[in-house]
Amino acid sequence: MDQDAGSLSQSLAEVDLQKYLLIAIGGALGSMARYFVGSTVTNRMGTRFPYGTFVINLTACLIVGFFLAGVERRAEVNPRCGS
């Protein structure tokens, strides 16, 4: 019985490690993409206004908006949560 508990504990630890690794990879890819877009927009538009940050934040708002609209269609949302 102890052997089964030990192997279960080990497999759970491997799953947790895999989740953290995937999160770290996603964060690294996201930060590299943000840096690339920000520096590209800044090089094209200049540095008088932080256009790179503006474009990145506007894009993120659109992505979050589309995501939440899709979730709202597929999931039942409590009416008290809206407006």
Describe the structure.
The chain has one domain (2-81). Helix content is 82%, strand content 0%. It has helices spanning 2-45, 51-74. It is flat and about 65 Å long. The longest helix has 44 residues, at 2-45.
Q: Strand pairing plus helix content: what structural class?
A: mainly alpha
N- to C-terminal distance: 54 Å
The structural domain count equals 1
Number of strands: 0
Shape: flat
Instruction: Encode the helix/strand succession as letters.
Output: HH
What's the main sheet like? none
Note the beta-strand portion.
under 5%
Separate helix tally:
2
Q: What percentage of residues falls in helices of 4 or more residues?
A: over 70%
Report low-confidence residues grouped into runs of 5 or more: none
| CA gyration radius, whole angstroms | 21 Å
What is the mean predicted local confidence, pLDDT?
A: 85
What's this model, at a glance?
The protein has two helices and no strands.
